[in-house]
Amino acid sequence: MNTFYSKLVSLPILSRSKGSICEKKGTYSWLTERHIQALWWERAFFRDLCTQDGQPITVLSPGQWNANSGPDFRKAHLLIGSQEFRGDVEIHLTDDGWTQHHHDENSAYNQVVLHVSFWEPVDAKPLITQNGKEIQRVYLHDKLTITHEKIPQFIDIDLYPYKPYLGSGKCSSSVFNRLDQNQAENFFASASLWRLHKKGEHILTLAPTLKDAFGAALARALGFPANNLNFLSLYQKLLPLRQQGSPILFQALALGACGYFDTDNPSHWIKNPFYVHLKELFNKQQHLLPDKIQLSPQRTRPLHHPIRRIAALSYLLCDTSLEEKIEHAIYLWHSPLRAQKRKLWNVLSSLLPTYIDPYWNSHYFFEEKELTAFLPLIGEQIKKEMMINVLLPIIYVRSESENDKASELWQLIQNIQATKSGHANYLRNRFYGESIQGNIFKYAYTEQGAMQLHHDFCQYFETSCYGCPFIERFELNEQLLTK
Questions:
Q1: Number of structural domains in the chain
Q2: In sequence order, which residues have a C-beta less than 8 Å from that of residue 380 and are 6 or more positions away?
Q3: Which pTM does this prediction carry?
Q4: Which residues have CB under 8 Å from 118's CB, separation 6+?
């Protein structure tokens, strides 16, 4: 493809910055881990940091504040001694938090390169990751430039983690705030086309057939960001059993593999006949799926809990209409209906799975009583995300291969409201701060473009922008277009 954004990401890097990717004292009842996280982010209230063995620490970037499960800061950029580190940072009031929260048993913390504590222990012990790596440690209590008592005066924890990101990207002032609305919309539309192109190419690698690639991508979408790879893995592991399986069997196998029949689950579940039946079925058939998979339910609304998504996944595995649906979607794009964007969107949406289940449409989990309200297994919000992240990318790459006018696809989502996810909110703040210009992300196509920009550039350089080539490439591309 040949767009402004595709040219931008293909430009060579003309220059690079020097960095390369590569029993406790008394505590105060008001001091929380969130205060320490804010101290780490601000970097204005401590100095002369060094590790437990005396190596000086330079914080090139504190990392990206992680509001979800896992390490407190993702992809920090540190200079420890003479060595550069890029990785995660975990924060506790004391070192004890590392083992108390079982981070030493959780592979999600294997990329932690620094553990930050407020208080230094009397008898310090090594902190070890699940894969056996010892982590460097730093203690802040004697490195502060203010007294402990003044921390609440300077740190309003209710403003975090969003306030720190307002206009934090260098591109905010150098690029986006100097573009008018039309220029900015055209740029992010170009980036969204690139995103459709790359997503579509990747989806077709998930399985040898278009039907199974479509199913695998839908399965991954069911997992949300926290569990998308695990749901893709479940789909791929259960797919060979499709001919002999059923939704009930797949639910039993998947729930058992993910630990939902273990003893540490809510005790009242055992009073639910459906739960008992699934557990008994798993005990008989668990040899079909012996693998254990750990899912993350943190910060998940009941309607979107992984248990319910597993139920939807079980129907997806048995859905024999997937091939017909994806072929019909591609046919519709080549039909005269393409000129009627709103109608086309509605018809394409109707091709995405819904699934009706006598149990899950009236239960959140394994509660004893049925609910009177209807609970969809796949609601309208997830269907919109499936449209944008699965169906349209597949149509896009299939259209490109036939020299079709695939660039018209962005018009299909031009007036579709954005998902307004936490990630999208972070990007709006990063690129525009509190400027009203950030309202261009209220539509799906500009939001998708912002996400692609983050994927191609920001995630490698995060909040420090240290070494990021985006501004240089953007300006060079502008010069090439004006010649």
A1: 2
A2: none
A3: 0.68
A4: 31, 36, 93, 94, 139, 140, 141
